[in-house]
From TrEMBL:
InterPro entries: MIT_dom (IPR007330), MIT_dom_sf (IPR036181), MIT_domain_contain_protein1 (IPR052817), MITD1_C (IPR032341), MITD1_C_sf (IPR038113). Residues 2-55 form the MIT domain. The lineage of its organism: Eukaryota, Metazoa, Chordata, Craniata, Vertebrata. GO terms for cellular component: midbody. PANTHER family: MIT DOMAIN-CONTAINING PROTEIN 1. It holds the Pfam family MIT_C. This is MITD1 protein. It comes from Picathartes gymnocephalus (White-necked rockfowl).
Amino acid sequence: AGAETVRRAVELDVASRFQESLVCYQEGIDLLLQVVKATRDEAKKHRYRQKISELTFFSDGKYHKQIRIEENATGFGYEKLFQEYLTEIVSEVWVEDPYIRQVHQASRYSLYNFLRFCEMLVKGPCKVKTIHLLTSYDEGIGRSQQMSALEEIKQSLSNYGVTLNIDFSSSIHDREIRFNNGWMIKIGRGLDYFKKPQGHFSIGYCDFDLRPCRETTVDVFHTKHTKKM
C-alpha cells in the first residue's frame, strides 16, 4: 500500500498537481513508518529509513493556496473547504478561534458552527480521535451558557469515540485549524464566516453550502509533519 501511494504521489508531482501529491507523499511516509516499526531486520529498516528521508525531501516543499470568498457567495460549506485535506490518516485536529461562544451579537452562531465542523469530522473519511479547541471565555452571563454548550458537544463527541479537549486563553487572537497530516487552514473570520439565516425554516439554515457567506479569505498551508523513526 505504501509503495502504491508513493507511485501515485510521483505521478501527481509530475503532473504539477502539487496539493494532491503532498497528501500522497505524507500518506506514503506514514505507511512506511508503520513498516519500519513492524520490521526487525535492521538492513530493511535502514533501507526504509533512506526511502522515508527521500520522500520527506520531496514533500517538504512549501505550499500556499489562497481562496477568496466573496460577500453573499454560496457553495462554501465546511466540506467544500476541508474535505480534501481530511485524509484517512487524520486522527487529531486543533482549532484555535477566540469566538466559539454562545449565540449572541457577532458570535451569534459560532457554537453551532463548531458543532457542524465536529459533525463533518465524525462523518469521515478521516478517523479523528482527538479535537483540541482553544478559545476565549464569553463575557458576563453568557459564560455559563458557553460552558454548558461546550460540555454538551464534548459529551456527544465521546459517544462517537472522539475526545474534545477545551482550553481557554484571554490573549488568543489568530484563528487557525490544523490537522496532524501537516495541513493548516487559516480563515479570516474563523468558522463563523456565514451570514445569519433569514429564518429557522429558510433555505440554507441546515445546508451550509446554500448559506450566503460574509467576505473573507482562506489561506491553506502545508507544513512538514513526520513522526520520529
